[in-house]
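B., you asked whether I could sanity-check this one before it goes into the benchmark set. Here's the sequence:
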Amino acid sequence: MSAAQESFKYYWEDFTPGWTVTSAPVRISKEEIIAFAGEYDPQPFHLDEDAARDTLLGGLAASGWHSCALVMRLMCDAYLLEASSMGSPGIDEVRWLKPVRPGDNLRMRCTCLEARASASRPQMGITKMHWEWLSPDGEPVMTMTGTQLFARRPRPEASA
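And here's what the prediction gave me:
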């Protein structure tokens, strides 16, 4: 077993159905919303307060892709950087439920829905996760469901 393998806090075996972690909150600024939109999603309701007032969103709102990127960062900080992560084959579903506004203070909650050992790769486990981005009163503003792959906990080497 390598030193790197021994240093993980979380392995696949730790992600049992019902396992949950919640991140610290993050505050979204108007400047961040506009900067992200200017670079990646330059629609008027993400860039200009005046133009945004006359849209379905009714005011300046973060891009949904900005929300996804922020939740990814919160995942990393809450558990992923301490886990034996082997990546992800993708996200099954993303739902943007409410606009994310300047000044919003949001936190991420991750819940493991399913966990199974890989049939073809015995060193790997597969999890189905559900992430929510929550307002201070616990109301989801965005949800995602997807798969994450984790290395299984190394077995102690047999003594000779």
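One thing to flag: Residues 98 and 141 are 5 Å apart (CA to CA). Otherwise nothing jumped out at me.
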